[in-house]
Amino acid sequence: MCSYDIICIDEQKGDTKCMKRYQRIEDLRIDKDLSQEKMASLMSTSKTQYQRYENSDGNNFFEAIIQIAKIHNVSIDYIAGLTNDKGGLHKNTTDEQEILSKYNALSDIRKGRVLQLLDMLTEEQQHEEKVK
Predict the structure, then answer these.
(1) Whole-prediction pTM
(2) Can you tell me the distance from the alpha carbon of 5 to that of 20, in angstroms, rounded to the nearest whole number?
(3) Number of H helices, E strands in the chain
(4) Structure-model confidence comparison of residues 60 and 68, the more confident one
(5) How far is CA 87 from CA 9, 12, 66, 78, in A?
């Protein structure tokens, strides 16, 4: 699965210009209800530069990092120095991997039922902890 989308834009001359757009970067910003201006400010950069990050405008550096990570079978977290674990910041336990594998095999309806059950069990546990 790609971490970016390919967007093709019809320009006035009838030409098509394709560019990569890193959707996850935009999604993260939107999830926190932040504007591009605010993100740029938080990163001490200009709005134009921040937009380049989201649009991958002329920036092959990230593509190179992805390729390096794939070639060496390491995480981008490791290359960035965020962890000394080549697998990344978080690795699922064997139990978590088994649960995710089973969950991913379910239909959307059954996934919804699992989430409802988890919500119910979480609420029960929180209630029990309050009573103690």
Answers:
(1) 0.47
(2) 6
(3) 7, 2
(4) 68
(5) 37, 46, 14, 7
Q: What is the pLDDT, as a whole number, of residue 21?
A: 65
Which is higher by pLDDT, 125 or 93? 125
Residue 8 bridge partners (DSSP): 18
Phi, psi of 9 (to 5 degrees): -120, 125
Q: Provide the b/e sequence for 59-79 (b: ≥16 CB within 10 Å).
A: eeebeeeeeebeeeeebebbe
Break the chain into its structural domains and give their ranges.
Answer: 5-59, 94-131
- Whether pLDDT at 98 is above 70: yes
Torsion of the alpha carbons at 26, 32, 34 and 38, rounded to the nearest 10: -100
Structure tokens at 84: 């000394």
